[in-house]
TrEMBL record:
Assembly mode: Homodimer.
The species this protein was found in: Kistimonas scapharcae
This enzyme's EC code(s): 2.1.3.-
InterPro entries according to UniProt: CmoA, Methyltransf_25, SAM-dependent_MTases_sf
Residues annotated as domain Methyltransferase: 63-159
Keywords from the named record: S-adenosyl-L-methionine, Transferase
Transit peptide found in the keyword field: no
Name of the protein: Carboxy-S-adenosyl-L-methionine synthase
């Protein structure tokens, strides 16, 4: 599939609408996320390595908020245990339509089921690996603990959740890391107009939290240990172990 250049916010908008994972975003999503999220191109292949270590025989692996299936494919190629199946879930039909094409074109024989649904409504069961890759930040704050508890309950002992998120900081680190993030975007060709308009579109929709808030909630949800395995500027990925 052709990956188009993200120019959604390249021209001035009279009114910036709230961000949506619609067809326009789905068409340019590989370019958008690569140029917007520091470390994304490192996190994805590492998800495959984590899956290779923690996947258990005859279990399910879930990619909740799978978008175009990058994490799904990473897990699919990392799994070397028999009888595993991957379940990808997203509430955007535009994303899943393109995800199916990537899955169909892939050479791995590990079964993948794709579901159009709200991840809060999908039961997790007999799971060894679950991925929330920059997904929880779009879930309302009041629903996050229930979702993580549901995941923890559905994980087998020794199973893991890979949680990647944008962070906020409670002290002077915030302004430093936020400006470095904007510099990262500028270095990848985004203009100040694009940065500003997208920030407006995401306001009140993408709600980040501190690293401490994530740790506390994961432990409250039933995970025994939380490991920060990656951070680049104000983006991180955590490994929560059941």
């Amino acid at each position: 599939m052709n990956n188009l250049l993200d120019r959604i916010y390249a021209e001035p908008h009279a009114e910036v609408s709230g961000f949506a994972f619609d067809d326009a975003v789905a068409r340019v999503f590989p370019d958008m996320i690569r140029r917007s999220v520091p470390g994304y191109t490192t996190i994805i292949p590492m998800i495959g390595i984590i899956a290779s270590q923690y996947a258990q025989p005859h279990t399910e692996l879930y990619d909740l908020g799978c978008s175009l299936g990058a994490s799904t494919l990473a897990m699919r190629h990392g799994v070397d245990q028999p009888g595993c199946r991957i379940v990808g879930v997203d509430n955007s039909d535009a994303m899943l339509e393109r995800c199916r094409k990537y899955i169909d074109a892939d050479s791995s024989s590990v079964p993948v089921d794709l579901l159009l649904d709200d991840i809060r409504s999908v039961p997790v069961a007999n799971a060894s690996v679950v991925t929330l890759n920059f997904t929880l930040q779009f879930i309302p704050l009041e629903d996050r603990l229930a979702l993580l508890s549901q995941i923890a309950d559905g994980l087998n002992p020794g199973g893991v959740l890979i949680l990647s998120e944008k962070l906020v900081f409670e002290d002077g680190e915030q302004s430093v890391l936020e400006e470095l993030h904007y510099d990262f975007k500028r270095a990848n060709g985004y203009s100040d107009l694009e940065i500003s308009q997208k920030r407006t579109a995401l306001e009140d929709y993408l709600v980040p939290e501190t690293l401490g808030q994530h740790r506390e909630r994961l432990l409250a949800a039933g995970f025994s240990r939380v490991v920060l395995w990656y951070q680049c500027f104000n983006f991180c990925s955590l490994l929560a172990i059941k």
